[in-house]
Amino acid sequence: MPEKKSRSYLKRQKELILQALTDPKFRKLLQENPKEALGVKRLTSDMKKEVQLVLAAVKGINSQISALADELLCANGGGCGIAAG
Length: 85
What we know:
Blueprint: H1 7-22, H2 24-32, H3 34-38, H4 45-73
């Protein structure tokens, strides 16, 4: 049976996802040096899983945003993009 996550844990995940989405420097640091990004000396196995989950969530959200933007810009078979030649 999956373990239930505490509210504080879920809140922390949401905050990390938001920061990774809105702060490209933090996202890059989280990818390249998660210990520094999280301000810890050592990553536990749970922290490693959390970082992987956050980065996967950010990647998924970015993909969804990109797909929606393409749909909006190319709606109704019109020219795609703002600067149509």
